[in-house]
Amino acid sequence: MAFYRLSRTARSLRHRHSSLSTAHTYYFQSPIPLNDSSRHSRHLFQVSGYFHSDNQFYNDSNSFRSIGSYHRLLQYSSFSTAPPDEKREESKNSKGIECDRSWIDVYLPEKARPYARLARLDKPIGTWLLAWPCMWSITMAAAPANLPAIKMMMLFGTGALLLRGAGCTINDLLDRDIDTKVARTRSRPIASGVLSPFQGLCFLGFQLLLGLEILLQLNNFSRVLGASSLLLVFSYPLMKRLTYWPQAYLGLTFNWGALLGWAAIRGSLDLAVVIPLYASGVFWTLVYDTIYAHQDKEDDMIVGVKSTALRFADSTKEWISGFGAACIGSLALSGYNANLEWTYYIFLAAGSTQLAWQILTVDLSSRADCNRKFVSNKWFGAIICSGILFGRLFS
Q: pTM, whole model, 2 decimals?
């Protein structure tokens, strides 16, 4: 069957070669003056690979009779099992270009696109990871057998979007000298020069003003508690220059909502509930952001910044397994102190399975797999939030 298909492909290519050669002769040897349209058509033939002088595959009329040409035919044919490196690389590059485009390029005006990219609006995983601890806390603070405050969840969701954008802007302003040296980050708006640092500062002020509007809708205790998190937000980007544990500092920053959500509902903090909840978020961050940091470990060593990925090295899975166990244990303690019902622990078991799957299966040498596991943490957050919801509704 394979030789039959091979024969058909060979005849088809000979026929195509003959037809296109006729067209080639007409366009390139015809004495008739060409109008603009004809010149354009000739240009299309010139750039086509069919008439490239070095293309032996199509120009050699006897190529199908040689063993070497037989193998080339297999490589170029649709049923090839081993495409050449050039085709594979071209396919990889084309996929990369497609992946670089997002809804920002389709729906936003051109002048707004750099600001949207600066706030990472095309990469919502950061907003999810910032929002989930808030949702855990708000849901846990609800009265027994009652749904959580939907308005408060919407406020905190919007706040997570704004604060994450502000944090990314601060990070890009402070790291613009480093970002230019790292392949993954050199195309960011400030590092690439699309936006100036002054434009970045103006955009940061705009985001913080919107965030202040949300904060002012909370009670006085929550306003003070929320404002105090700005110290963590502004100082986090500097930690990678000072310590091998910037992921721990990010955990303190990203999970502040575990404290703030409870305070927004209750007007105070129940330390027996919120401290284990906050700690669980910090341990969770150490898991997912260490996995994320393995994407950049080679570049980090070159530019001289630190991370837990470099600190743990080959022992990473042992470390993050410990952090994962501490995360689940802290969630169990927080749920117990909050008097959640047994349904919570079913979801907690499902969440622990998802977290274990990440840790056990992640390929730390593969950037793609590290990113895939990192992004999957939005589902861990959703599982835990669902467990808290049902644990509260049945209490």
A: 0.74
